[in-house]
Write a structure and sequence with these properties.
Blueprint lengths: L1 H21 L4 H17 L1 H9 L12 E5 L4 E4 L21 H11 L2 E9 L6 E11 L2 E8 L2
Length: about 150
């Protein structure tokens, strides 16, 4: 009976870990979200910006959502906070004092496609967590989607 109890406990822990992993987006999901948003922006920019900001289900994947900024760091679409749209955030800093939007624009101009680390509020837990965003420059905008490091 002891062996069965230990085996059952191990299986339960493993199942819980698998379920928890599926609860959050992955780096691969972030890259796919950005590529999908870049393609949609090329097809119909205004509609795509509106859908992202309206939190249309096709632009939300668990804790993952796109953000679109212009080259002055003005938010054109934000998949979690529509109040951010229209704000120019070149000097906005994360809790550690990192001006990550300024860095984002600099990286977009120098690399085009990149991963960026900073801290931001997780939409699921509402806690500030380390975040890693995948971003691509697409013409006169930068499209990003980020995963939270747990």
């Amino acid at each position: 009976m002891k062996t069965f109890t230990v085996l059952f406990a191990c299986l339960l822990l493993n199942a819980t870990a698998v379920f928890a992993a599926d609860e959050f987006a992955t780096a691969k999901d972030a890259e796919a979200m950005v590529k999908k948003a870049v393609a949609a922006l090329k097809t119909n920019r205004e509609a795509t910006l509106g859908e992202i900001t309206a939190k249309d289900a096709k632009w939300i994947n668990r804790d993952l959502y796109p953000v679109v900024v212009d080259m002055t760091a003005k938010i054109l679409a934000h998949g979690q906070n529509p109040k951010m749209v229209g704000k120019e955030l070149i000097d906005f800093k994360d809790p550690d004092g990192k001006a990550f939007y300024k860095e984002r624009i600099d990286l977009a101009n120098s690399k085009g496609k990149f991963w960026q680390d900073y801290k931001f509020t997780d939409p699921i837990t509402k806690k500030v967590l380390p975040k890693q965003a995948y971003c691509e420059k697409a013409g006169d905008v930068v499209v990003c989607a980020g995963i939270y490091k747990r």
